[in-house]
Every structure is written in C-alpha cells, then in structure tokens.
Design a protein that fits this description.
Elements lengths: L1 E10 L2 E11 L4 E6 L5 H9 L6 E6 L5 E3 L12 H6 L3 H11 L4 H13 L5 H11 L16 H14 L4 E5 L7 H12 L4 E5 L3 H7 L2 E6 L2 E6 L2 H36 L6 H13 L26 E12 L2 E12 L3 E5 L6 H8 L7 E6 L5 E4 L14 H6 L7 H10 L16 H15 L3 E5 L7 H13 L3 E5 L3 H7 L2 E6 L2 E6 L2 H8 L6 H10 L14 H36 L3 H4 L2 H35 L1
Parallel strand pairs: 3-7, 3-8, 5-6, 6-7, 12-16, 12-17, 14-15, 15-16
Antiparallel strand pairs: 1-2, 1-4, 8-9, 10-11, 10-13, 17-18
Helix pairs in contact: 3-4, 5-6, 9-10, 19-21
C-alpha cells in the first residue's frame, strides 16, 4: 500500500531520521513509537503529504484513498455532528445533499446509481453507529458541533476518518480524550479493518491489542519489528543486550592483547609474539552503539510525614451543572496506602469528583473531610489550571515553592525531569504537553505530599515517561487517587477500583484485572454506557413493580450465559482472523505460498468475517435485552 524509499527528514542541522526504506501492506496495523521529539508525528505528516521530506520517496498504491485524523481542524462548528461525520465519505455526502435539493429526473437517476454503487443509502446509519461507538450519545448527534467540548469534537473528527472507509488510515494519538469503553470499541473497529493503518499512541495496552507491527523511530532511523508493542519491547531489549555483551567480550579480548603487548614488547624472547598481538589489535573493530533518543525521567515521590489511617471521607456529595446531575449522594472512605483508580465513561463526573475533593470546585451538597495530617498534591488534567502565568519560566515555577533553596537544587530537580541547559528558561506557554506534565510533577516531588490526586497524568507523556511514572507511583508510600483511561497504567497501579456509572458508584476492593474478571464491564459497548447516561432520570423512584414472572426470571438467568458464550466465540474468530492477517503481512508470503492455499485463506477469511458480523450483532442484541431486563 505504501512504499517508502531512502526517506530522510532534517530541520536545519538536526536529522530526525535518514535512509528509511519500508513497505507498509494492506491488512497490517503499524504502531509508530519513539520518544517525544524523535519524529513520529513528522513521519506521519510526510505520509499524509502535509510535510515535505528532505529526501527520498513515498509512493502509494494506485487509487488508494487516504484517511488522516487532523486534531486541529474544526472548520464545521455550525454543522450537525452527524453531518460532519458523514462528510468523511465526501462523494456520497455530496450526492445525498444534491439529492435533497430535488434535481432533474435525469440527474436523480444518476445520483441513485452512484449511491447504490457506493453503499450510499447506509451512510447516515454507518456514521451514527461510529459516533455512538465513540461515545457520542444518540440524542446529541443531530446537534451542532459547537455544542461539544474539544475532546468530543476530536471524537467526531475520528468518526469522520473511520466513516470514510479509506484504504490507508493515519491516526495520531486517537485514544486521547476517549474513555476506556470507547477505546475498546476503536480496537474492535481497527482489528476488523482490512486496509493499512499507521497509528501513534502512548497507550501500551491499545498498541498491544491492535498492532501487527511496530515502527520504531530511534537511532536516527525507523526500524520495523513484527508483533505488538510488548513483543517489540522485549525484542529490542534483547537485541541491545546481545550487542552490549558482544562489545564487552571483544573489549575484554582487546584488553588482554594490549596488556600482553605492553608487558612483553621490550622482551626479546617475546617480541615476535607481541608484534603479532599488535597486528591483531589493529584488525579488531569494536562496534559503537548509537545513542538512543529515548530518555527516562528520574521520578521519585516522597512523603514528608504519614497521614492518619482514614485519609478521606465523603458523605452525600452531589454536584449538578444546570439541570444535569453529575454526582449524586457520593459517600466513601479512602484509607492510608490505597491506590484508588476512578474509572467510567466520559461525562459521568470523574474529573468533577477529583476537583471537588481537592477544593478546586464547589459541591452542591454533602461533606468532604480530609483526615489527620493529610497533605494533598494535585495534578489537573488541564495544565492551564496549574500553569497560570504563561510568561513564568520553568525554573521560576519550581523555585516559587522552595525559595530557600539554591539554584543548583532547583536545576537538579528539573534535570531529573529532563529539563537541561536553556530548557529551564522556557516560559511555560512554550512548553509541550509532555514538558508541562513533567514540570508539574517536579513541584509534587519537592512538596512531598502524603496524598496524590492525579487526573489523567499519563496524557502527553511518551511510553518511556509513563513507565517511569508507574515505577515511581508503585514505590510511593502515600495514598494515590487517580483517573486514567490507560488500562495498562490502571492495571499496574490500582489496588481499588471505583467506577462511576449513571446509576451511582461501583466500589471494588481489588486490582483492575480482578475487577474485570468479576464485573465483565470491559466488554460493554460504549453506546450502552451512553444510553444509560442518557436515560438516567432525576425523578422520584417509580412505584415497586410487580414480581417478575418465571419466564422473565429464567430469561435473566440464561441471557448472561449466552452472552458469555457469544463473546468467547467472538474471541476465537478474532484470533483466527488475526492469524490470517499476520500471515498475509509476513514478508514474501504471496511469493512463496501456493495459489490454492492463498485462495483457501481468503475463503476462510470471508467466512470468518461474516461469522464475526453475525456474532457481533447477536451480542449487541443480547446486551440491549439485558439492559432492558435490568
């Protein structure tokens, strides 16, 4: 699908990558990884045609349609959300608009033929399905785009790309601003996608679940690895270790030979042997490993003193925005040393809860009581809430809370967070998202609070910084309360999970994996959550219903079992489809595989895709019926 030959890109004297040659194929999903600033987004822009290369060529398959997630394009603010999504299929959308304008009978026939040829009459339904899959409630899709927040607008732009059914899709951080359920939906969509996908993401679990290959931007080039992110990471570490061990072995041999020469060079009886060793030394070449662009911040969160046993008590906390109730009667107790993950669909009050408990938002009702000696450090999802002075330098921002310390101390802390040399003099308005995140962490390191409240702390960080953050939080001796949509991050840290649902809190004492095994909610479709949120009513409870009939009770018992059976079958089918797709992506597959075997693979793939569609439809029907039964 995409042939890349001798590609290079430089900005002045700085070379991002050089002499890159790759072949990106249909049916393959490439995870594009690398440190912040290594050139990932630049490479994606070159592929999309919005950034010129310094050298080399990028060639696309003939007539290939390209879909690109552009995160900064909100040109259609007054148009309906559904229309914006439908604009992804530009040809069909234009034909539908022309059809609505009542053209001549001859033109009507032409439009009808075009729409039938391009499945145009299903465009609206397909666009609605994608929007709801990405968490846009059905009731909202006919409202203007301007009614959505920036995060939800990005979901609409992502829907626009997916609706277009491109042959090649380029996605830069598509999981930003998605909740866990919407990410699950996107994974299923991409795993069923038959084109070529290139995806940048800092979400390790997402990359593990969707990638068939990894493109690693490092050492001044881009190297392709087979498999998902975990497989790549292990392979890269093992390769580096082998090279380091080989270099150490050669250097040891070299050292022995040099020592022999130095010892016996002047001794007549050994002079010939010394000369021989000297010639051997001249022939030995020691490989020099290039420096990786990956850098790990040195994070360490300490506590000045321990808190009391009961760290935080909430009693009947409620909050509404206008007529919309977000939190209602929330009561819970958090104890010292717990690591509490707050999860749930977007819009149900996760960030609101964190702002209320940190005193950054007034509650409508209830009590928030911090325990004895509780000292709270807060990380807001929106950096502007904490970096309030845009002209202040990074150095002064940290120095403000420790004016008694010298320059070397402050620079030392910032250096551990990857601020070196002139970086410390940058105004906060010029910082990237990752730099702003690390700067806020520097304050938390100096303040040494015994409670950390973090709202989406892994946003804007590269995978190396996320790994360093997780290790620091695992070693933290205080209490942790955090919101995150990164399942790998949650899974590594949480000892307690609080899911905010439309009907209230689901409080689970245990890890995220244990929570999923118990609840199974990771398998829910995002539109079911959106439906639950939409239908939530702030009314008096209805009169008690009559006792359910035996038939209803039996149905309630049998449906979950059938749903689980269907999900198991979906997993088996998806796994086999993944095997076939990986076989297709293997270098030289079509050249070395007999035609009859390729045809058998294709027939099996077609059958499995039909079976998957039927199973998915059955699963959605079962979920809808279960929701109706309660």
């Amino acid at each position: 699908m995409i042939a890349i030959s001798n590609l290079s890109k430089s900005f002045g004297p700085q070379a991002l990558f050089d002499d890159v040659t790759l072949q990106l194929n249909a049916g393959c999903r490439y995870g594009l990884v690398g440190a912040n600033g290594s050139g990932k987004t630049t490479f994606l822009k070159i592929l999309s045609g919005s950034e010129p290369a310094s050298g080399g060529e990028v060639t696309f398959a003939k007539n290939a349609r390209l879909g690109v997630l552009r995160q900064d394009r909100f040109e259609s603010d007054e148009q309906l959300i559904l229309d914006v999504a439908m604009m992804g299929d530009e040809l069909v959308h234009r034909a539908l608009k022309e059809q609505d304008a009542e053209p001549s009978p001859e033109r009507i026939a032409e439009i009808d033929e075009l729409l039938r040829a391009h499945d145009g009459y299903t465009l609206e339904a397909r666009a609605a399905q994608v929007l709801m899959g990405l968490g846009i409630p059905e009731a909202s899709i006919r409202l203007p785009l301007r009614t959505l927040s920036g995060g939800y607008k990005l979901r609409v732009l992502l829907a626009q790309v997916l609706v277009s059914r491109p042959d090649i899709v380029l996605l830069d951080e598509p999981t930003n601003h998605l909740d866990i359920l919407s990410i699950r939906w996107l994974e299923r969509f991409l795993n069923g996608y038959r084109g070529c996908a290139v995806v940048i993401s800092h979400d390790q679990r997402f990359m593990d679940n969707i990638a068939t290959h990894i493109l690693d931007v490092d050492y001044g080039t881009i190297i392709e690895y087979p498999g998902n992110y975990s497989a790549f990471h292990q392979m890269k570490v093992e390769t580096r270790e082998r090279k380091e061990n080989e270099i150490a072995r050669v250097e040891k041999i070299l050292a022995h030979k040099k020592a022999f020469v130095e010892r016996f060079r002047a001794k007549a009886s050994k002079a010939r042997q010394a000369q021989s060793r000297l010639k051997q030394i001249e022939k030995i070449e020691v490989e020099t490993l290039p420096t990786s662009s990956r850098r790990y911040p040195k994070l360490r969160f300490e506590i000045a003193r321990p808190s009391g046993r009961d760290v935080l008590v909430l009693d009947g906390v409620s909050k509404s925005y206008g007529e919309k109730s977000v939190l209602s009667g929330v009561s819970l107790t958090i104890r010292r040393g717990e690591r509490v993950a707050v999860i749930g669909a977007n819009g149900l009050g996760k960030s609101t809860l964190l702002k209320i408990i940190t005193g950054n938002l007034e509650r409508d009702a209830g009590r928030v009581d911090w325990g004895h000696e509780a000292q709270v450090g807060y990380f807001a999802q929106d950096h502007k809430e904490q970096l309030t002075n845009p002209t202040q330098t990074a150095l002064d921002y940290l120095w403000d809370i420790c004016p008694e310390e010298g320059t070397s101390f402050v620079r030392g802390i910032l250096g551990r967070l990857l601020f070196s040399g002139p970086d410390v003099e940058k105004p906060v308005s010029a910082l990237s998202g990752g730099e702003a995140t690390r700067l806020i962490f520097s304050r938390l390191m100096v303040q040494k609070p015994n409670v950390l409240v973090l709202d989406e702390p892994s946003n804007h960080l590269d995978l190396e910084s996320i790994e360093a953050l997780v290790e620091a939080l695992e070693s933290y001796q205080g209490t942790l309360i955090f919101v995150s949509h990164d399942r790998w991050f949650v899974d590594r840290l949480a000892t307690r999970v609080i899911e905010i649902r439309a009907e209230g809190l689901n409080d689970f004492a245990g890890t995220y994996q244990e929570y999923l095994e118990r609840q199974g909610d990771d398998h829910l479709d995002a539109e079911q959550v959106a439906l639950a949120a939409k239908t939530k009513k702030n009314k008096e409870p209805p009169a008690p219903a009559a006792a359910p009939s035996n038939a209803r009770t039996n149905r309630q018992r049998s449906l979950p079992k059938r749903r689980d059976e269907v999900l198991d079958k979906i997993g088996v089918v998806e796994a086999r489809l993944s095997e076939i797709n990986e076989a297709y992506c293997a270098p030289g597959f079509f050249e070395r595989t007999p035609r009859e075997q390729i045809e058998r693979h294709q027939a099996e793939r077609t059958r499995l895709e039909a079976e998957l569609a039927a199973l998915t439809a059955e699963w959605e029907t079962l979920e809808t019926e279960l929701a109706a039964l309660g």
